[in-house]
Inverse folding.
């Protein structure tokens, strides 16, 4: 129903636009869709983590002025706290009358803390927000009493925080409109679309100790899911689709419907799911034939005592059976491991790392993390109850790792700050099942032709590497014999002597403190080098394992501050390398920027 007091909404999303592999947030897309469906006046702004807070604030203020905004909405997780704080402060500095609304898991699992820590936020939407946000906006436009809206927390006229009755009902996923990614990311999608995120279900019926307690499991109708996939993949140049469910069901009816419809779409898929006895070779083969090329498994540990403590409901023996079946079906596997459960000790942690090394041929990719105590999880509440963390200070520090394990603090720090990083880049991410490696540059210095033999069948394989487009995962393949092969081409191409020559003759910085930098860090033995250097990172995200470097990571503005003369850009194909380098050269014209492969 049309009202006489239409409000102009600015819907904001927090995202890193420079990373083509970073899926954009699906929650914002659903909120956009329901607001548009109910004919609200919606405008958009992306707080781009590739840019500085200063640049984002300027862009936000321009959007507020351009559209004469009345209401600003932004959602986020707990580690987005500081960006949300900066965003809402910037909004209120323009006009205190603009209504600010937050949603997402931060306010859902820590409603009181979220309102206390974000004093410039007026209202929080708790839980799945599609029903609530539309009711709230209708009430605001009708000058009604927002206390009648279920599922929110807000400040009254006396600045007291009030939480309304909890909303019990959840959206019928079959009735929700197609998620709207175009509102927020339309212009970006035209040139940079890579990975289409979609959600075919919500919730999870499991109860792992480290995970937030999700609502009951529900599925979207398969036809609705593929209506969305068909629309976006036909309009934009998406290379693959990622199902970002907490759990992907392999029950017979859902499996049959998915496989039948997925085959028609003709696009590759990646799934996120958990180890299950139902993941047999037959089921996995059917998924592969339907276009599934990658499965992310939350494995967490390779020790049964730790798995039981985590309430994972799986065993190492089941894990091996499913991983072997996944490989036999020629589906790539990403194994995600988290360390630091209450039952974790040095023996169990080493057992997991030994498992990964012993079974490298079963993995396409692995990820290592220490458990972080996020609000809404059993472990977080236990730590609060035991006085190990203060919930407010913990959030203000962006939920840092906390030792709740049986590891000593020294052992915990060693694993967290160094060993996982060292293990990953020097013991896991090295050549696998290949020998007799040769390489030569083809038509230009950025294109390399590698040749190597499969150790199992002896087949000679040609592998082309485009250094501006190829990422780590692109160099992991199946041989015709079914063996998994991994080429660590970065290691072969990094020239230690040339790097040292640059460090010797110039005040030098490395730009891009991610996986490719760490390959340089260990291949060039920078810990033993007598040459000084600086670390620069363009993204506002904190790089993994940054504490292991024992050096501060600066924003690019440090180039002027420290008089840096030469910058070695260590970016892989996950980024638009040309665009990044061009932007740096434009902003810092007196500095020489050189790609790592051109040193």
């Amino acid at each position: 129903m049309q009202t006489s007091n239409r409000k102009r909404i600015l819907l904001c999303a927090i995202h890193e636009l420079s990373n083509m592999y970073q899926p954009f947030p699906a929650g914002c897309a659903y909120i956009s869709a329901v607001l548009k469906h109910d004919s609200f006046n919606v405008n958009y702004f992306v707080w781009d983590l590739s840019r500085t807070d200063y640049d984002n604030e300027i862009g936000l203020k321009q959007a507020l002025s351009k559209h004469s905004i009345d209401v600003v909405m932004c959602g986020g997780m707990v580690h987005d706290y500081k960006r949300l704080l900066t965003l809402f402060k910037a909004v209120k500095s323009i006009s205190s009358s603009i209504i600010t609304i937050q949603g997402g898991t931060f306010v859902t699992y820590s409603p009181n803390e979220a309102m206390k820590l974000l004093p410039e936020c007026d209202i929080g939407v708790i839980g799945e927000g599609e029903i609530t946000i539309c009711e709230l906006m209708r009430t605001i436009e009708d000058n009604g009493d927002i206390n009648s809206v279920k599922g929110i927390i807000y400040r009254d006229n006396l600045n007291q925080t009030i939480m309304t009755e909890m909303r019990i009902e959840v959206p019928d996923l079959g009735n929700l409109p197609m998620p709207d990614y175009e509102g927020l990311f339309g212009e970006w999608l035209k040139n940079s679309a890579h990975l289409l995120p979609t959600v075919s279900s919500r919730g999870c019926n499991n109860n792992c100790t480290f995970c937030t307690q999700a609502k009951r499991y529900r599925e979207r109708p398969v036809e609705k899911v593929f209506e969305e996939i068909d629309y976006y993949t036909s309009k934009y140049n998406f290379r693959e689709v990622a199902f970002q469910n907490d759990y992907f069901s392999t029950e017979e009816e859902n499996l049959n419907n998915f496989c039948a419809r997925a085959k028609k779409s003709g696009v590759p898929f990646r799934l996120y799911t958990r180890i299950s006895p139902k993941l047999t070779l037959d089921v996995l083969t059917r998924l592969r034939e339907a276009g599934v090329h990658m499965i992310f498994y939350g494995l967490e540990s390779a020790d049964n005592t730790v798995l039981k403590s985590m309430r994972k409901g799986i065993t190492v023996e089941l894990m091996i059976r499913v991983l072997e079946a996944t490989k036999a079906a020629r589906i790539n596997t990403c194994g995600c491991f988290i360390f630091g459960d209450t039952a974790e000790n040095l023996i169990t942690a080493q057992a997991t790392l030994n498992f990964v090394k012993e079974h490298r041929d079963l993995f396409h990719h692995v990820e290592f993390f220490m458990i972080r105590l996020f609000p809404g999880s059993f472990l977080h509440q236990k730590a609060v109850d035991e006085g190990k963390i203060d919930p407010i200070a913990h959030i203000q520090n962006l939920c840092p790792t906390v030792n709740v394990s049986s590891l000593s603090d020294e052992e915990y720090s060693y694993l967290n700050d160094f060993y996982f990083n060292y293990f990953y880049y020097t013991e896991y991410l090295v050549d696998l099942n290949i020998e007799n490696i040769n390489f030569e540059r083809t038509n230009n210095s950025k294109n390399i032709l590698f040749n190597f033999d499969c150790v199992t069948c002896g087949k000679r394989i040609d592998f082309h590497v485009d250094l501006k487009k190829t990422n780590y995962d692109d160099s992991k393949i199946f041989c015709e014999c079914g063996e998994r092969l991994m080429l660590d081409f970065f290691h072969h191409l990094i020239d230690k002597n040339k790097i040292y020559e640059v460090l010797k003759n110039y005040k030098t910085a490395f730009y891009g403190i991610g996986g490719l930098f760490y390959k340089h860090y260990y291949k060039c033995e920078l810990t033993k080098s007598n040459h000084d250097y600086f670390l620069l990172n363009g993204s506002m995200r904190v790089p993994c394992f940054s504490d292991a470097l024992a050096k501060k990571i600066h924003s690019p503005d440090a180039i002027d501050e420290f008089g840096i003369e030469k910058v070695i850009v260590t970016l892989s194909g996950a980024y638009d390398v040309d665009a990044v380098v061009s932007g740096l050269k434009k902003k810092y014209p007196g500095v020489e920027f050189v790609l790592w492969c051109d040193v």
In short: The mean pLDDT is 91. The longest strand covers residues 292-300. The CA atoms of residues 12 and 45 lie 5 Å apart. The chain has 21 helices and 25 strands.
